[in-house]
Amino acid sequence: MARASAEAVPLVALVQSVRFGAYEVDVVGGTLRRLGVAMPLRRQTWQLLCVLAAHPHRLCSKAALMATLWPRTVVGDDSLVQCVVELRRALGEDGPRLLRTVARLGYRFEMPLSPGTRAAVAVAGMPTSGPLDPAWQLLTTAQGVATVIAARDLFEAASNRAVHRADAMAGVALSHVIEVLNRWASCPAWSVTLAREAAEEAMALDPANARACHARAHVAMQEGRPFDALLGFRAALGRDPTMARARLRMGVIEMELGRPELTAGHVASALALDVEGNDEGLRAQAWFIEGMAAFQLGRDEAARASMDRVLGLRPADALAHEWIASIDALAGAMRSGADHLELFRRSLPSHTLESLRETERSRHPLFKHQRDRLYDGLRRAGLQ
Q1: Strands 17-20 and 114-115, how do they pair?
Q2: C-alpha 252 chain-centroid distance
Q3: Among 46-60, 211-225, 370-384, which stretch is predicted with the lowest mean pLDDT?
Q4: Which helix (H) or strand (E) covers residue 263, if one does?
Q5: What is the DSSP letter of 348?
Q6: The pTM is what?
Q7: What are the two backbone dihedrals, phi and then psi, of residue 247, each rounded to the nearest 5 degrees?
Q8: Cα Rg for the chain, rounded, in angstroms?
Q9: What are the helix (H) ranges across 123-243?
């Protein structure tokens, strides 16, 4: 018998489609095709194909495969063998050659893959296409609170379906976190509480879910537990190494721990995952974090340049205007500082120096010194 406590195969992001010979694994469509004709597969057999295709030429142990395919159920070896038989049958005469048995150890997928466009695959081995796609798209591209709320509504609607509930609750948690991070939350403490409850439920439903782990790490970060958060983001990356935004959050934590010189490495790693350069939200976040780190290192001109890059992508980004207002005022460019402060106020009119200070979590002397300098610049620009 294999139990859910066995080490699960850590899934990485698969591509949108992979081809080998006459076959195509359509990740977005959730279908195996042969010469364009769909080959029906049971859910666990499809998951097995996703796991193996994500790890070509790698031995996947029986225990790890069973823990991944049946994370909360005790099953016998026959369940996995049945999936292997079904997959080989779907692969026709090429099945035994493509899917090799390694005696007493596990299985290995032997065919080199020809990738198409990159796209994430859920930790459970199922494609991310489906009812949650519009919600994740809204959340990752949100530039205002209305979009975040719209995404949350979609997550909450999908949470009624058991098969999607873990991912949906992770989305609910992250929607509250994003409100806090962007200073859109009317009551940040309450938003963090709601995020914690949703993240804990997602983790209870599926401990192997990378997004649930990511959401819980965000909660720890907001609660002022940087080391727990750092470990949480590392755990999320262990479940899904392509989680670029987890790497960015680790860069922020390094700053809060007084180690801004380490932030650039996390930013570079995150940007490297955007192979096609089409994730605008990721790049805007990366450059913003890069700018904060440069400011903390006393490199104000580099910080200003990074914030300019953010505005090049998102001209209305309120937080980038906030930072430029401070940097320019500190440099004596008072008119420019005042102009950027006005643009910040248009988006977030209720904030004062005191309310902004209250959002800070770190008490590290280096971090606190540079944040005091940021607020001094905002005061010079005209914020009270």
Answers
A1: antiparallel
A2: 14
A3: 46-60
A4: helix 263-273
A5: S
A6: 0.63
A7: -65, -40
A8: 23
A9: 133-141, 145-158, 165-181, 188-205, 210-222, 226-239
Helix ranges, 279-333 (H): 280-296, 300-313, 318-330
Whole-number Å distance between alpha carbons of 290 and 298: 13
**Bridge partner list, 23:** 20, 34
pLDDT of 136-155, one tens digit each? 888 877 778 888 888 888 88
- Tokens standing for 311? 């505005």
| Cβ atoms of residues 376 and 330 within 8 Å | yes
Q: Is residue 252 within 8 Å of 288, Cβ to Cβ?
A: no
Instruction: Identify which has the larger pLDDT, 138 or 294.
Output: 294
Mean pLDDT of 208-235: 90
pLDDT (tens digit per residue) in 247-292: 999 999 999 999 999 999 999 999 998 877 778 889 999 999 999 9
Of 282, 290, 355, 273, which is closest to residue 313 (Cα–Cα)?
282
Mean pLDDT over each residue of the chain, to the nearest integer: 83
For 40, residues 6+ apart whose C-beta sits below 8 A from its C-beta are none
Is residue 101 a contact partner of residue 37, using CB atoms and an 8 Å limit?
no
